[in-house]
Amino acid sequence: MAILVFIIILSVLVMLHELGHFLMAKRAGIGVEEFGIGLPPRIWGKKIGETIYSVNWLPFGGFVRLVGEDPEDKKKNQKNSFYTKSIGQRMLVVVAGVVANFALAVVIFYIVVAALGYKVSLPLLIDHNFKFVNQTKQVLIADVSADSPAASAGIQIGDSIVSAKGQEISSIEKLQEVIRSSENEQIPLILENPVNNQKRVVTVTPKYSQEQQAPVLGVGLGELVVLNYQTWPQKAFSGFIHSYNTLDYSVRVFSEIIGYSIRSRDITPVSEGVAGPVGIAAITSQAVSLGWLSVMQLVGLLSLNLAVINILPIPALDGGRFAFIIVEAIIKRRVYPKVEKWAHTIGFALLLALILLVTYNDILKLVR
Known about the structure:
By secondary structure, this protein is α+β, with helices and mostly antiparallel strands. It has eleven helices and eleven strands. 51% of the residues lie in helices and 23% in strands. Strands 3, 4, 5, 6, 7, 8 and 11 form a seven-stranded antiparallel β-sheet that branches. Strand 5 and strand 6 (167-168) form a beta hairpin. It is elongated.
């Protein structure tokens, strides 16, 4: 089921991206030679007008083939060629896929935020100021030791602690303070599931630990940030706000990881923080087990990531094609077709090699 869901998610994201290119190309009067569902070899195809609509064997996304998209295409000088269109029209066609993925993320996050009662929790890996929304902190249960007071009380990994002994818990230090003052005393805890915001109450009795020299619950702790969309403008723009904050936070975390790897001269943190198709399939499996809201959040996050990756100025990606158009606008003439074609070919080869490397790393992580 997880594999099927993963294939569906990936196909929808890529198909929507290509649909953006397709619709904008049609609007600009650019010929579309083929709109393919999946990747070749072809199973079936039917030509309607100038376009072949095909279904292909590899069920991963799809593709759009435009007239004159290749700078060495023999048809590049035709009236309906991508090559003959204005700089503005070509820019719009190139970025249309990115816009489609961002729009999907916004719609999904509108649904998710509303379904969660306008209260969304995210693991807090680094201190970060989320914009345009109220934020508070909660303590996250990251680990539960076997035969511990927490395990006996039914506390689970992934729970967050809202309050202890009637006191609001907004930091690990506050929770530790309550526990250390309550040896052999029953503590009522209000726990919350960050996936669906459902609360429950448990009672736990801390036990003294010789190792820690203090009463403990037997848990590993982390932090969550809780984003509360309280005012009507926050709710009205929640899809855009959450998309922006998710993207901003993700970029900040990844930048910190890269910075740490450079300072420590160790690539391990980066390799652990990056996932390819195999890694995303494993994450999808976890999301499926947690319910449809987790799957929706994953789709929104992947759609944002696909938009960002594609807009990077790397040859073979949309951002690379956009960069060549910008260069053309600056120098007032076309980049040599052979130069552009070889740049995209080399870029594609490097991207393929990177995907294979990341996939190999994902497999190593799974078999450890």
